[in-house]
UniProtKB/TrEMBL annotation:
Gene3D superfamilies: Ribonuclease Z/Hydroxyacylglutathione hydrolase-like. Keywords: Hydrolase, Metal-binding, Zinc. Residues 54-268 form the Metallo-beta-lactamase domain. This is MBL fold metallo-hydrolase.
């Protein structure tokens, strides 16, 4: 657990998957050398050229509010196009419980974007029907992503398998839960919590900033998938919807994080899963947090 002011931040792990280096079309093995002391092992395995990709969500417990940032991949989902997220059976809710939170305790679910590995625990299967997992929560998502992923609006051309995460994990919320659509740049949406537009990886992606008692944390979602991107901000991943825009967003978040010294909490980093950005003569460096969230 990490504290930011009066808020507790807990990482709730779902699964850790291996991701081949082909994640980055611009991959250059030589770029590993300068950071290999800490990068190889905790983040990257040279035996099979793969990254550790953690799928986790962030639990933020404030004095009066319990907030979940993103909801992982979910259990028992039908994912014909993404076998690694298909039919999962993880003790995610038990892990949430171990952090002191039952599903009914969650006040807000803030969804940075609506990709497969960020929306899954929005719903669980009950009597053959997908129902909201967190019955008392207000679910927050950007209007842009909500429309872009809807097979009746922006995703008409997508194959049926590709829109399943929307169909089984977002649409049931629109029908059965309290949903708030946002623009993704709201200030003080909740006390101390702002949204920052971070388009590119997903067209409607937003980062979430938490500030309390002079401390600051920035949940950057998938602005970066792996810490090697701190050193190579021009590398967008094969999962980025708009790689050029993702690159611009990455550079601006790196600059902001270095200037403000805030703790950044990405959605998929391995190691200690969060850290700090430092400006260097060549660009930026990553300093992993000493403390595990
Ligand atoms: Zn992701």
């Amino acid at each position: 657990m990490i504290k930011i002011g009066r808020y507790e931040i807990h990482r709730i792990e779902e699964v850790v998957v291996r991701e081949h280096k082909s994640l980055f079309a611009d991959w250059d093995e030589a770029r590993v050398e300068p950071i290999k002391d800490w990068f190889v092992g905790d983040y990257y395995d040279t035996a099979d050229d793969s990254f550790a990709t953690s799928i986790h969500t962030w639990l933020v417990k404030g004095p009066d509010l319990t907030i979940l940032i993103d909801t992982g991949s979910g259990n028992t989902k039908d994912r014909p196009l993404s076998p690694r997220f298909a039919g999962l059976d993880t003790p995610y809710l038990e892990r949430l419980k171990a952090a002191g939170v039952a599903p009914e305790d969650v006040d807000y679910v803030l969804l940075t974007h609506l990709h497969i590995d960020h929306v899954g625990w929005n719903t669980v299967l009950s009597d053959g029907k997908w129902v909201p997992t967190f019955p008392n929560a207000t679910y927050v998502m950007t209007r842009t992503d909500r429309e872009a992923k809807d097979p009746l609006i922006g995703a008409k051309e997508k194959p049926a398998g590709a829109v399943l995460p929307f169909v089984d994990s977002v649409k049931p919320l629109l029908e059965q839960a309290t949903v708030k659509l946002v623009e993704g740049d709201e200030q003080n949406f909740l006390p101390g919590i702002d949204f920052i537009k971070t388009p590119g990886h997903a067209v409607g992606q937003m980062a979430i900033r938490l500030r309390d008692e002079g401390e600051e944390a920035l949940f950057i979602a998938d602005v970066m998938h792996q810490p090697i991107q701190v050193y190579n901000p021009e590398w967008s991943s094969k999962f980025c919807e708009d790689g050029v825009l993702a690159r611009e967003t990455r550079k601006s978040i790196l600059s902001y994080a270095a200037e403000n010294g805030c703790l950044i909490l990405p959605a998929h980093f391995g190691g200690t899963h969060c850290g700090y950005i430092e400006k260097t003569a060549e660009g930026y460096a990553y300093r992993p947090s000493d403390v595990m969230p």
